[in-house]
């Protein structure tokens, strides 16, 4: 297992590569994303190729990871413990899709776009963080 500084450096490097990939692919531009989602209008299929590439890379990565006893910088993997499809999962997915469709952002590209200081991005990220805090408080209260 690596040191804490090593894990932080690895996470920073992975985040930087991820953000760069989002920028290069156009996923940080809400107009490109909304064009992809507009299947009844002026549909732009370019992001389908981005998604296909991401799925291929993720598939290969998960196959490699499943063959290892532990990750490089941790003692164990944090695989999901549940595969239940319940109302909470469906509601969360619906809210995610609604936000993505209305704003053209999902959390990763929005955070990567913060470097531009665009007012729409700043408002989206602030609203996203407020929603996360509200959900955390609601879950804590619900027990």
Quick overview of this protein structure:
With 143 residues, this protein is mostly helical. It is built from 6 helices and no strands.
Task: Write up what this structure looks like.
The protein is an all-alpha fold. It has one domain. It is built from six helices and no strands. The chain has helices spanning 4-25, 30-37, 46-66, 87-103, 107-113, 119-142. Helix 1 packs across helix 5 and helix 5 packs across helix 6. The longest helix is centred in the last third of the chain and has 24 residues, at 119-142. It is globular, with a radius of gyration of 18 Å. The relative contact order is 0.10.
Number of domains: 1
Shape: globular
The string of secondary-structure elements, in order, is HHHHHH
Number of helical regions: 6
Averaged pLDDT, please? Answer: 89
Q: How is the biggest beta sheet arranged?
A: none
Give the strand tally.
0
Residue windows where pLDDT falls under 50 for at least 5 positions: none
Query: Kindly, what is the distance between the CA atoms of the first and last residues, rounded to a whole number of angstroms?
Result: 34 Å
Helix content: 55-70%
Strand proportion, as a percent range, falls in: under 5%
Based on helices, strands and strand pairing, what is the structural class? mainly alpha
Radius of gyration: 18 Å
Describe the protein's topology:
Elements: H1 4-25, H2 30-37, H3 46-66, H4 87-103, H5 107-113, H6 119-142
Helix pairs in contact: 1-5, 2-4, 5-6
Notable characteristics:
single chain, 143 residues, mainly alpha, 6 helices, 69% helix, globular
